[in-house]
């Protein structure tokens, strides 16, 4: 088939969609489409002109021609041609060469008087079978010219078009079998409008404004399906012998006659105002299905649906029916489904189901039924689905459902059921049971489980009742895989409860007032499952509650949530939860720290448990400890009896914020944490503290000292100490306190805050020697003062001269190998080092690159003690400072601004200064390095510098002065001094 393409000028807002759908299997369909349309589209050339442009999308098999705002689109893969224009006038200058098209979609166009056939013929489109006209515009009524010469059309669908029909509207479409005229604002139907449609089988006039239909309107037409829904009809009397399907829903029908519809199979009367119907309304029909809902059909006629042996489906819903005739469905023995839902029935006649032995579905939901008589349901031996939800049923009596041996689905939701008789649910084939929103508190009836007979049950919905426990009878429900217990009264859930629900896939316990989930035996049950029969792997439980008790009663559940149980447990049980603590803060239990889960001591059950009387006592399972909280109770005496029990590991005692002045002897008690902070303790006997103590708080008391002299075996396990804000004395009586702080310095949490009483001096910076210096004999001080005064008067002149020229004289003597009369070597022969260099780590470059090489090199090297080289890693710093000063003949202080900013630097100076005072010898050598502010000097250091000489880095005689100040050795007398050249950024002159 060939097709030529010329320029298309389109001046109408129109769209034509063409589908080619041969009735063959899918493979042949594809082959034929490729052969036929492949040739067509191969000849559809992309022609460009001044008015049009063309694009050919090779990969998509698409061609698009654009003429201004008008387009022609052809898609080979989808077999669609779309023509869209934007003018009420169409002038085609190009046509297809005789293409037979099955479906034509014609939308948003103005129909001209020449008709649709003229337009599509110009395009070369022939033999259209299915035509859809959407949102068309006509100049007046639908005359025969618009649809003329469309003999090939079998299906016509006109919608969203304002139609005025005439007797000749469809003369041009004589072969129509289906006619759809929905939503076209049709108000009147001419009597002869369909006479030419002698083949019409389906007619849809729904969603229009029709008020009346002539009974002979369709006479002579083989109509099988008629849709008149959503119009304004008030009566209906049709004479169509061939009609099978009738839909008149959503009208205003008050009366209907179907006597002339002998072949009628189903009818929909939904949403009409029918009040009543004659007896045996459908007796002359072949009715199979009746749908009538949402009306006011309060009084059903006698024998309404009797003697209808083809009737299968009856739906009479929401009709406000209050009574129902006993013989309504007699002799209609083939009914499969019956729904009387959403009416006002409070009972059904006992013999109502006399001939309903084949019924499989019965819906009586949303009525006012109070009781179920077992004789009523006796004939329903094949019933599979029974819906009695939303009624007023209080109890299902014994044998009420006994004859429903094939029942599989039972819905009793939203009734007032309290319990069941022992035999009430003896329906062995039941698979789904819905009992939500009732008043059931227990499933035990007459001492027997009321669900005992449900061997095939798979799903049970008991949500929103008053059940508070799972009965042992669940063990028999071996096929149960889904149970809904949400919205009940469960407060406690034990693993013993869950084990009875065998092979359960999901258990819903959401929205229960759960307080405790006891999983203490979970590991035992999990390990008891022997593979391969490990069906517990699929067990899942959903839990939610806002009443959850977040204390130790749920500790095992917390272990489960934090994956602290063996892996076998998580194969045995899976839990999805959202449990909110009843703490008023809406804390989620999964976010609670396990260590905070404690219980009142009275709840804890254990042998040999002591009582707790005057304090708040709790038990913590996380570490099996007892917590005795006696804080803030205005106690003046500490309790002597401490809670204990056989199966606890230790006790924590909190005596904080009281007025206690003395502690009892707790030496032999199993207390690991003791808090006695913020009390009035005057003394503390360390040896009376618990031997296994790991944490001690004694801050904010009146303690002045620690009196014990032997600390070797004291507090061997201590890890945390707090001691600040006490009245610690700092004289020679405090040596035990200082030794204690030195020993436990790494354990003292507030070490940097422990100061002497009414002072800012930190205790850890003090040494025993330093604090004992102040204990000088008063008489000795007076005599020494008098001697110095006399001696100073005699030698005042000599002192002035010596003071002015002392350094030069000594340096000159030392440089000429003239030593002092007394040998310094004999006095310091036990010293390990010649000098200990004290400096800030920020001045390490000066020490490492200049001082150390200059002093340890040459013919007379000195042995130096340095932080980074000679200190033992991990030793207490104050002790190392004291040891370094004590083992060195001199202490060289590199005094810089960095040194003044260092706490440890000032400590080293005070240690060296104290040693010098004790020995009455000059032990300190001060090297001034860099610029510094005198206001930053400590009083002791400022006093020392004012009374002693010092060396300045960069001084011309720096090295001679430094070597002179260091210990003199006899062997240096006869040695030749070598030059030491040390470059210095402060003094570029080479030293000689």
UniProtKB/TrEMBL annotation:
Domain TIR: 831-966
Subcellular location: Membrane
Protein name, per record: Protein toll-like
GO biological process, one term: innate immune response
Membrane-topology annotation of the record: Single-pass membrane protein
GO molecular function: signaling receptor activity
Transmembrane annotation, as ranges: 781-802
Keywords assigned: Glycoprotein, Leucine-rich repeat, Membrane, Receptor, Repeat, Signal, Transmembrane, Transmembrane helix
Any one GO cellular component localisation term in the record: plasma membrane
Entry-linked PROSITE patterns: LRR, TIR
Signal peptide extent: none
PANTHER family: PROTEIN TOLL-RELATED (PTHR24365:SF541), TOLL-LIKE RECEPTOR (PTHR24365)
């Amino acid at each position: 088939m060939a097709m030529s393409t010329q320029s298309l000028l389109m001046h109408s807002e129109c769209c034509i969609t063409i589908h080619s759908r041969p009735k063959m299997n899918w493979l042949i369909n594809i082959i034929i489409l490729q052969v036929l349309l492949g040739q067509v589209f191969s000849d559809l050339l992309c022609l460009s002109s001044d008015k049009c442009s063309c694009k050919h999308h090779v990969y998509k098999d698409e061609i698009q021609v654009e003429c201004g705002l008008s387009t022609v689109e052809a898609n080979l893969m989808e077999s669609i041609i779309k023509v869209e224009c934007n003018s009420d006038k169409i002038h085609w200058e190009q046509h297809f060469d005789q293409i037979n098209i099955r479906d034509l979609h014609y939308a948003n166009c103005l129909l001209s008087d020449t008709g649709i056939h003229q337009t599509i013929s110009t395009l070369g489109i022939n033999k259209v079978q299915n035509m859809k006209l959407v949102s068309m515009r006509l100049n007046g009524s639908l005359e025969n010219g618009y649809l003329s010469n469309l003999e090939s059309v079998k299906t016509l669908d006109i919608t969203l078009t304002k139609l005025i029909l005439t007797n000749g509207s469809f003369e041009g479409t004589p072969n129509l079998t289906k006619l759809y005229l929905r939503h076209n604002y049709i108000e009147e139907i001419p009597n002869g409008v369909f006479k030419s449609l002698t083949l019409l089988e389906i007619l849809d006039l729904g969603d229009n404004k029709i008020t009346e239909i002539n009974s002979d309107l369709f006479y002579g037409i083989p109509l099988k399906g008629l849709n008149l829904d959503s119009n304004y009809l008030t009566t209906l009397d049709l004479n169509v012998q061939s009609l099978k399907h009738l839909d008149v829903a959503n009208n205003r029908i008050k009366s209907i006659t179907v006597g002339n519809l002998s072949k009628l199979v189903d009818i929909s009367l939904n949403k009409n105002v029918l009040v009543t119907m004659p007896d045996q309304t459908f007796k002359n029909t072949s009715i199979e299905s009746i749908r009538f809902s949402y009306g006011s059909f309060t009084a059903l006629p006698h024998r309404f649906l009797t003697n209808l042996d083809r009737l299968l489906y009856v739906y009479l819903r929401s009709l406000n029916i209050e009574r129902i005739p006993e013989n309504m469905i007699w002799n209609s023995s083939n009914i499969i489904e019956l729904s009387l839902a959403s009416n006002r029935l409070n009972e059904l006649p006992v013999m109502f189901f006399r001939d309903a032995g084949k019924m499989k579905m019965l819906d009586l939901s949303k009525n006012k039924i109070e009781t179920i008589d077992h004789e009523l349901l006796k004939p329903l031996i094949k019933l599979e689905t029974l819906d009695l939800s939303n009624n007023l049923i209080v109890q299902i009596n014994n044998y009420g459902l006994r004859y429903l041996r094939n029942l599989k689905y039972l819905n009793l939701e939203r009734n007032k059921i309290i319990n069941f008789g022992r035999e009430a649910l003896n329906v062995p084939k039941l698979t789904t049971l819905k009992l939500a929103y009732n008043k059931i508190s227990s499933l035990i009836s007459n001492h027997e489980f009321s669900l005992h007979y449900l061997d095939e049950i798979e799903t049970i919905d008991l949500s929103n009742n008053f059940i508070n426990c799972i009965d042992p009878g669940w063990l028999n429900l071996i096929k149960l895989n889904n149970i809904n217990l949400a919205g009940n009264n469960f407060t406690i859930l034990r693993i013993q409860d869950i084990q009875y629900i065998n092979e359960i896939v999901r258990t819903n316990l959401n929205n229960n007032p759960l307080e405790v989930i006891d999983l203490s035996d979970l590991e035992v049950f999990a390990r008891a499952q022997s593979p391969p029969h490990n069906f517990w792997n699929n067990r899942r439980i959903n839990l939610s509650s806002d009443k959850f008790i977040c204390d130790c009663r749920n500790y095992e559940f917390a272990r489960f949530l934090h994956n602290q149980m063996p892996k076998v447990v998580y194969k045995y049980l899976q839990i999805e939860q959202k449990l909110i603590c009843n703490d008023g803060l809406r804390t989620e239990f999964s976010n609670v720290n396990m260590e905070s889960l404690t219980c009142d001591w009275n709840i804890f059950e254990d042998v040999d448990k002591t009582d707790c009387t005057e304090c708040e006592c709790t038990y913590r399972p996380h570490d099996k400890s007892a917590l005795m909280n006696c804080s803030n109770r205005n106690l003046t005496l500490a309790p002597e009896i401490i809670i204990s029990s056989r199966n606890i590991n230790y006790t924590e005692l909190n005596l904080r914020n009281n007025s206690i002045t003395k502690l009892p002897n707790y030496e032999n008690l199993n207390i690991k944490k003791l808090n006695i902070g913020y009390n009035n303790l005057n003394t503390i006997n360390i040896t009376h503290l618990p031997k296994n103590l790991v944490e001690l708080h004694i801050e904010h008391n009146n303690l002045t000292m620690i009196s014990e002299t032997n600390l070797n075996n004291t507090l061997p396990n201590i890890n945390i100490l707090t001691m600040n804000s006490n009245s610690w004395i700092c004289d020679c009586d405090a040596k035990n306190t200082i030794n204690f702080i030195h020993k436990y310095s790494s354990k003292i949490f507030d070490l940097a805050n422990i100061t002497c009483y009414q002072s800012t001096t930190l205790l850890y910076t003090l040494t025993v020697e330093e604090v004992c210096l102040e204990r000088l004999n008063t008489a000795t001080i007076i005599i020494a003062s008098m001697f110095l005064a006399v001696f100073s008067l005699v030698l005042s002149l000599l002192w002035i001269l010596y003071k002015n020229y002392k350094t030069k004289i000594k340096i000159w003597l030392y440089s000429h190998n003239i030593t002092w009369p007394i040998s310094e070597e004999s006095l310091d022969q036990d010293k390990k080092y010649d000098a200990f260099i004290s400096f800030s780590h920020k001045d390490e470059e000066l020490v490492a690159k200049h001082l150390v090489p200059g002093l340890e090199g040459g013919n007379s090297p000195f042995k130096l003690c340095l932080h980074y080289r000679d200190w033992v890693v991990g030793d207490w710093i104050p002790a190392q400072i004291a040891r370094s000063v004590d083992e060195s003949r001199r202490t060289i202080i590199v005094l810089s601004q960095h040194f003044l900013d260092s706490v440890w630097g000032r400590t080293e100076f005070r240690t060296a200064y104290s040693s010098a005072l004790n020995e009455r010898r000059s032990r300190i050598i001060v090297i001034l390095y860099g610029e510094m502010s005198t206001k930053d000097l400590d009083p002791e250091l400022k006093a020392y510098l004012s009374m002693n000489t010092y060396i300045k880095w960069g001084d011309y005689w720096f090295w001679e002065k430094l070597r002179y100040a260091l210990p003199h050795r006899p062997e240096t007398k006869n040695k030749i001094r070598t030059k030491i050249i040390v470059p210095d950024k402060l003094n570029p002159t080479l030293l000689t």
